[in-house]
Amino acid sequence: MYQDRALRAAAAAPARLYVDGRWRDTERTFAVEDPGTGTVLAEVADASVQDALAALSAAASAQESWAATSPRERADLLRSLFDAIHQWVDEFADLITAEMGKPVAESRGEVAYAAEFLRWFSEQAAHRHGSYGPAPRGGSRIVTTRRPVGPSLLITPWNFPLAMVTRKLGAAMAAGCTSVLKPAPQTPLTSLLLAEVAERIGLPAGVFNVVPTTRAAEVSAALMGDPRLRKVSFTGSTPVGRTLLRQSGEHVLRSSLELGGNGPFLVFDDADLDAAVEGAMAAKFRNGGQSCVAANRFLVHRDVIDDFTDRLVERVRKLSVGHGFDGASTLGPLIDSRQCAKVAGLVEAAVSEGAVAVTGETAPRGEDGYFHPPTVLADVAPDAAILRQEIFGPVAPVTAFDTDEQALRLANSTEHGLAAYLYTRDLHRAVDLGERLEAGMVGINRGMVSEPAAPFGGIKESGLGREGGAEGIEEYLETTYLAVDLAAAGAGR
Ligand code: NAD
Fold this sequence. Notes:
The protein is of the alpha/beta class. The chain has helices spanning about 1-10, 50-70, 70-85, 90-100, 105-125, 165-175, 190-200, 215-225, 240-245, 275-285, 305-315, 335-350, 405-410, 425-435, and strands at about 15-20, 20-25, 30-35, 40-45, 130-135, 140-150, 150-155, 180, 210, 230-235, 255-260, 265, 295-300, 355-360, 375-380, 395-400, 420-425, 440-445, 465, 475-485. Nicotinamide-adenine-dinucleotide binds near residues 156, 217, 243 and 390.
């Protein structure tokens, strides 16, 4: 039954490349799976380097005319795309569940969140201004104006197949940049459906091109080696981000990188524990823990650790594990067998190091998907291996601390710096520690930080630049300074 619904969702999406406003076949194809059953949903066109370069040619040809459209025209198209996604919410939500696995209620949440970036950037498009002012010495004027960076390569991961795309595409479109999107090979269909919707609302050919491929390294190297490309915006793992940053040196590309995290979740002895557990459930188990802003390390004051852990376990036991279409599940499968094996290995290693594992519901009987039971790991030592890497799964390691300074030191002892969370009723502590946590985003008494109107991004090895917020569009704009000599024009002031 789930299989039929997943197959129907997949069949509603195009499975070809979208280049220059046309749908193209390729020599090779690759299979897209339903992680909830392991069955093949579709065979999708597999772009070669030549196909990707054709997409860049389309983006480069459309760049000048797209940049010349008025901000209002671009805003209207973004708004139409926002409206259209809302009309297609069922199709998008089913497709996200089919190819990525999350429960369909969560997929609907992602569709609304993804669309919101388009509305936000439609509102931003007409509000990018330059500046005008006298030079300090007088006699001339300093005028600055903004222009789009140019054709951009957008590379996205599989965990939020629609939102990770609209967060980049909305900003690029608003700024006046054309783009080539290379979606994750696990979830290309959602991007292709977005291209179809963009085509229907009348987005001009070449402004948005989509090239799914299994040859990511080859394709992106060729695109980044072509001087017509002016920007790369990547969301994914830190090792791949590092490679892209190195490659972007060749043509000095503008680079935005949203990379991995290792989020600390701090619970102090004065925290509202009900709220902290509620926040922990969202920060850890939403999307099956497969989120870059997921809480990865629960650091809890020794006086409340037993109480917090008991309440967390109680909630975790209520999670219902199953296929995203079963109507009851609140935790879906992981993306693939490799990720499942990785998470299981991390739990095993933590237990061998002395942690105590308490698991909730295990995989539903009779399902072949990539399920991992939600797990709380108690008594995790502060130097345990599991705390040094991104779990990307439904596992919550809990570690005790005694003082604020110790909590801060543990929280900051990572090369990552994406999201952090802290729960306390003490305003001084919240602000003081909030400012000293090495993270691009800090949730204070909140387990969710994502918000299209806020700047999303990391520090340290979690990335460069911000997406969303007023900052998001800046990543796609250059500043030009015009030095205007008034004396030569006959005015002396
Ligand atoms: P990944 O780095 O393996 O892949 C991400 C994208 O990069 C995919 O499209 C993939 O095909 C492509 N890619 C892989 N190798 C490449 C190469 N050599 N050159 C160019 N492109 C290449 O990551 P993933 O497994 O898809 O996603 C999980 C990771 O993404 C996690 O580390 C997570 O934290 C991170 N993530 C970060 C954010 C954020 O905003 N900071 C959001 C979501 C996910």
